[in-house]
Amino acid sequence: MPIEPNILAAFAVTALLLAYSPGPDNIFVLTQSALKGPWKGVVVTLGLCTGLIVHTTAVALGVAVIFQTSQLAFTLLKVAGALYLLYLAWGAWRAGPEQLSDEAEGRGAWGRLYLRGIIMNVTNPKVAIFFLAFLPQFTAPERGGMVAQMFVLGAVFMLCALLAFSSIAFAAGSIRRWLRRSDRAQVWLNRIAALVFVGLAVKLATAQR
Q1: Which residues contact 89 (CB under 8 A, 6 or more apart)?
Q2: What's the first-to-final CA gap in the chain, in angstroms?
Q3: Cα 44 from chain centre
Q4: Where are the alpha helices (DSSP H) in the chain?
Q5: Most exposed residue of 41, 90, 108, 150, measured as fewest CB within 10 angstroms of its CB?
Q6: Distance between CA 85 and CA 138 in Å, rounded?
Q7: Mapping DSSP to helix (H, G, I), strand (E, B) and coil, where does residue 192 land?
Q8: Closest CA to 32 of 198, 200, 192, 202
Q9: Helices marked H in 61-134
Q10: Any residues with CB less than 8 A from the CB of 60 and at least 6 apart, and which?
């Protein structure tokens, strides 16, 4: 039998609350939307949700257990994620106001933002471990295949994240017009974004299983 609607509803409400809770992913969306505009924030969100597909698959197939049981695997992945965040911080710190113009960016910028979202999410082992602990709570063997249930729940979680993060993107992107009128404000927001990336990198690098 499929997952009952009341269980899916409870899962969706929980997922929405978690998506709106301050964390690396929605902070990333917020800063990028304020700097580059709401639609760029949506592109980042799509990248983050694509990363959730990887984590859902890892949980469904049992791969995520590796990050829970292997200190080496956990450390390697979190170091890779922290280094990538520091790379983003360096780029944001050096960015000038001219780089915030939508007209100045080509199609490649959209692809880079999408890829950033994927890498940001996939290189965070805490997400895999969270999914490993969270998704099974809403599954039951008597409902049929556990793998199928995991993918259904993962899809619902991704939809909730897409809705929540997109709303954050448009809320943060509303200050974009003001930023375009102030070069100094653009530079300072870039610097703030850089510091946010550094903070996220430190938090990830010091994370424990």
Answers
A1: 193, 194, 195, 196, 197, 198, 201
A2: 34
A3: 8
A4: 5-20, 24-36, 38-60, 65-69, 71-94, 107-122, 125-134, 146-173, 176-180, 183-205
A5: 108
A6: 32
A7: helix
A8: 192
A9: 65-69, 71-94, 107-122, 125-134
A10: 146, 147, 150, 151, 154
**Amino acid at site 87:** Y
Distance, CA of 198 to CA of 134 (rounded, Å): 28
Query: What pTM was estimated for this model as a whole?
Result: 0.79
* Each residue's pLDDT tens digit, 95-148: 665 544 444 455 567 888 999 899 988 888 778 888 888 888 888 777 778 788
Cβ atoms 42, 169 nearer than 8 A: yes
> What is the residue whose two structure tokens read 């929540």?
164
d(CA 166, CA 72): 35
